[in-house]
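Entry 12.
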Amino acid sequence: MGLARFIVDRWSALNYKSAFADTAYKQPNRNVFPHAMRTWVPKEDRRRLAAYTLFAAYAHNQAWEVASIQDHTDASARREFGDPAMLVASITSHMLGRQQTITVPGAEDAEPSDGTQATPEARHAADVQEKLRAWAKAEHFPLRLQQAERKAVREGDTVYLLGLDAAKGRPRLSVIDPGLYFPDLPDNAGDSADYPDRIHLAWEIDADPLTGAKAKMRRVTYELGPIGTRTVSSTDGPRPGRVPAYDVDGATPLMTGGDVYDPAAGTISRLYPWNTEPSTVTCYLTDAEWDLDDIKADQDVHNLDYRYATFLTRHDGEILDHLDLQIDFIPAVHVPNTIPEDGHWGESSLSPLLQLFDELQGTDTDSSQASATTGAPILGIVAPKDRSSRRGENKRIRVQPGMVIELGEGGKLFTVDTSPQLAELRNKTTELQDRLSLNARMPAVALGALDPTKAPSGFAIDLSYGPMEPLLDSMHLARDGKYSLLFKMVQRLYKAFQHPDWTGPVVDVDLAWGTYKPTDKAAVLEQVRNGVKDGVMSLETGIRLLVEAGYPVDDIGEEIERIQSRQFEAARNLADATGSTEAVGDFLGIDINPDPAAPEPNLPPANPADGTADDQEEPQSGKTGGSK
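Predicted 3D structure (tokens):
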């Protein structure tokens, strides 16, 4: 029975909070976390939602409110100076780096520097890379990335949602709060390598006393299922919904254009633009609302009764009741903060440090109170009795700055010095901050706590980043596959929209993280210059090192073209080595017309006095005169 109360999961580090593990089975306190304990929230998700709220409270300096509700005491005097928010911001900025770049493998070969012809695959990779970067700019992807990753670091999870906007002609990107995300995992567990076939985005809508609207629960569901016959919106009946579409005979169901029915298997298949083989799976979208009064006690977000649902309508008039999106994937990407060890969810960077934050907040509160007695010291005055008082009580004196107290004969003045205790509290704060830096694997230089005037050598600073590098490598590993999937979905949605500019196969895409270390740009530039000059480093690798060092290079290929267009000495060496004018023109990026062939020599006529003219005849031998 004791083991039943011992729970180890992603959020068990918070079990020391009595409000988080209120019952014998470690369920959150309903008064502290009311939204996590709604009847429609599955039991396996309650601890997760309560943890999200607790992490957000710490990051927004509201932990005192949780303590006040938990302990039923006035905790408003508790001091919180933003240490959790500072740690979240530091980890997020270092994990993302200075800049993030969308790269397609092979795009750098679209314009070979050796003058050879680029392959169609390389040209397609460069084209997709350029289009994805244009899409990211239009969708403010760097801003969405910051928004999503701050949630992932703080709460442990974040969710991206893609939707096709026909008016704008491109996929739209949204960041979803993980507290609204409810995946339908098999057996309430699931493998982190397998994506669920059904997810819900659910939240409550408060009642409106002015309009009389009742409190509702809204649920948006994406579900993969077999392709069915075509459906149309219908307003007949008690609630709007979708009904099968039939031929003019009223008996033959219609299929979506391009679908193929297999009578033997009884399935309908569809060839998607990004697949080479037909698929029998599609994604259905349902967007509906339920009155909270209609949700029974034995129902949760996964098994609500559709008889009480009110389906919403899209802007184009389509009722969102199992609407066929004509894609074979769910356009949502869940990004965990860490590599999931035992399921679907990640771990917050704040999770193992909450007790340290509590200690810091307690020490800061004590220091604040101690500083009040140090700034306004406690005085003890021994003065004569106040004879004007009936009881002969001591006269009370209010001490103010600059005040002079006259003491009578035998009077004494005592002061209580509390500055030593304040100094000890400050030393305790420094000790806790060092422990926080150690456990968070964030060195003082990364947290901005290092005095620049006392900074050691650049090599020593570089070594101080050692504990943080494995942390960031692990965080990048948890994200690389997710962002690659996100950019694949963007390409597929463009193809689903039949965008004329998006042709060719879907390619792999990477998100390159920027550097987070302070870089000596002059040293990197000298290293690249010597490496390229001595022939031990290619120009492509050198430019890539300059980009990582923070030099403003937008496109590596274009930068190489600019550099080569000015290297006339190298072009002359290329001409001497190959004898090809065309190769030199490709190297310099200009058109060079080869010299025309030399014309046949046209010699002038010779001087007659020389006796070498072409029209001079040979003399006839033996003939000296005329005949007789």
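Annotation: Residues 224 and 542 are 47 Å apart (CA to CA). The first helix runs from residue 43 to 59.
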